[in-house]
Amino acid sequence: MKHSVHDLIAVQFSRSLLGLKGLLLKARAHAETRKFDENLFLQLRVAPDMFPFVKQIQITTDGAKGAAARLTGKTAPVFADNETTLTQLIERIERTVEFLQSTSEKDYEGYELRTVSFPWNPGKHLQGFDYLSSHAIPNFYFHMTTAYTLLRSSGVEVGKGDFLGEQNWIKEA
Amino acid sequence: MKHSVHDLIAVQFSRSLLGLKGLLLKARAHAETRKFDENLFLQLRVAPDMFPFVKQIQITTDGAKGAAARLTGKTAPVFADNETTLTQLIERIERTVEFLQSTSEKDYEGYELRTVSFPWNPGKHLQGFDYLSSHAIPNFYFHMTTAYTLLRSSGVEVGKGDFLGEQNWIKEA
Hints:
Oligomer: homodimer
Helix content of chain A: 55-70%
Structural class of chain A: mainly alpha
Number of helices of chain A: 5
Order of helices and strands of chain A: HHHEEHHE
CATH topology of chain A: Four Helix Bundle (Hemerythrin (Met), subunit A)
Largest sheet of chain A: 2 strands, antiparallel
CATH architecture of chain A: Up-down Bundle
Number of strands of chain A: 3
Strand content of chain A: under 5%
Low-confidence stretches of chain A: none
Mean pLDDT of chain A: 96
Strand order of the largest sheet of chain A: 1-2
């Protein structure tokens, strides 16, 4: 059982995004119990000059769909980045997972020959694997963890298990 | 150029840990400018019931050396987890990078057949790749991001570039 880039992107980012969806559902339940508007979470920030919660979710999902699109050549869904509700963020996560899961092992063939460039670093590119390992994966978890931290520090009862999501534990005989 | 598990662990975790060392050096410079004891960072927490900064660094390094040890069968350096200074944490990061870099491509052969279990989940295990993708990588970045957030929210001028570390950008002709 060799691993594949499909597993690192489509399988693992989906697992994490479903964990993230679970975090948002816990935030919703928390707001309901405390009787405040659940959409207030969207503007929370760790520091005044860091992006708010809504943007952390936008970047997390963009990172996942962007990695899948850049390494398969498929076209990712485009979001308007205008979410104002928790419900809209949950839909965004779900649509991202759908896109990830629409990619197959075969779609990633030749990913190592693809190059990835960004408007903020003109005239330079990363090769497929370097992009995945040194940019896409750490950046994805950076923003997902920041979203987690915002909920955790607001009193929402979330833990590492929620962050990691459903794992393939094998029961020993 | 196919990627390898050695690249995901030894190369990428080293890159990130050197980024983390850079973050600590920025924290040191910040404390120097503001004239406070740099070791005060070690007890910072995001929330009262989350681990302090010192423990975030301990877990980040443990995650990296643990992944390399579990998937190669090599013995990782053991740390006493008694750091009280930023200097000691920097040394811990450096020793972890040394261990990661002492592992070779060949050491990871057969990693997919290895199983990984933890005392907190008795009677169950994860297979090599599932352990790496669904546990070791997200957990590593979870704790590294939490350490970053503690510095960022304390006013240390750190940014995404510090977090990602040195990347293999290729200049276009």
